[in-house]
Amino acid sequence: MGSPEFEVIISKTGKVTVEVKGAKGPRCLEYADMIKEIIGREEERRLTTEYYAPDAQVRIDARVRDASG
Amino acid sequence: MSAVIVLTPMVVCAWPAIASAIMGAAASMGFSLRGSALHEEKESRLRKVERDIEQSEVVADQLNPGEKIVVTRDDLTVEFGQDRRGRCTVCVSGLRHSEKELKRIGDEIAGRVVQQFAYHKLVTELKHRNYSVVEEEVLADQSVRLRIRG
């Protein structure tokens, strides 16, 4: 998995909006918590579809045997 | 993207860090420094309004009582200081502006101070954690957009 990327918008009133990209599942919450620890008080949090994508890759090997074995 | 969070900065730090944010905010709005000054109580016909920088607290290297940072632009004067609770205060005065306009200016400059503080805090802390700012721009609405990568 590649390193994460943060898209940050700091408004002229000081509000900070951060999009965490490149991290799936609960790992992205760790990055979000890291940013929150730096900045301050969390007002809102939204999880997107990438959050629900599996973090690990699963490979399935299947073999088909005919009736004769 | 996987998550979006919205945060309100807690401006809790030593006064020099806040002073740095004040200078950046003032410069971005066309104000220039008149210098630190001891507040002088004097009769004045100037209209004045007081605002606070929300979620702010000076926790070290505090200002001497009455000491202020003063910036000016045209007939406007903005004084930054701290109250007894350590909260940052903004006092805006001017001859040719209504009270409503002075409040608007005070709120805008207070917001810009928070913006500057949040920008420097975030960039500095993430650099310490080996992240880099790969893209930066000021948008038309004066927001700052950053792209930061690990």
SSE arrangement:
The complex is a heterodimer of chains A (69) and B (150).
Chain A (H helix, E strand, L loop, with lengths): L4 E6 L5 E6 L4 H14 E8 L22
Antiparallel strand pairs in A: 1-2
Chain B lengths: L2 E7 L1 E4 H14 L3 E7 L8 E6 L3 E5 L6 E7 L2 E7 L5 E7 L4 H30 L3 E7 L5 E6 L1
Parallel strand pairs in B: 2-5
Antiparallel strand pairs in B: 3-6, 4-8, 6-7, 7-8, 9-10
Helix pairs in contact in B: 1-2
Can you put this structure into words, describing what you see?
The complex is a heterodimer of chains A (69) and B (150). Chain A has 69 residues and is α+β, with helices and mostly antiparallel strands. Chain A has one domain (1-69). Chain A contains 1 helix and 3 strands. Chain A has a two-stranded antiparallel sheet with strand order 1-2. The longest helix of chain A has 14 residues, at 26-39. Chain A is rod-shaped and about 75 Å long. Chain B has 150 residues and is α+β, with helices and mostly antiparallel strands. Chain B has a domain at 11-114: Double Stranded RNA Binding Domain (2-Layer Sandwich), CATH 3.30.160. Helices cover 29% and strands 42% of the residues of chain B. Chain B has 2 helices and 10 strands. Chain B has helices at residues 15-28, 99-128; strands spanning 3-9, 11-14, 32-38, 47-52, 56-60, 67-73, 76-82, 88-94, 132-138, 144-149. In chain B, strands 3-6-7-8-4 form a 5-stranded antiparallel beta sheet, with helices on one face. Chain B has a two-stranded parallel ribbon with strand order 2-5. In chain B, a hairpin with a 2-residue loop joins strand 6 and strand 7 (76-82). In chain B, helix 1 (15-28) crosses helix 2 (99-128). Strand 1 of chain A pairs antiparallel with strand 10 of chain B.
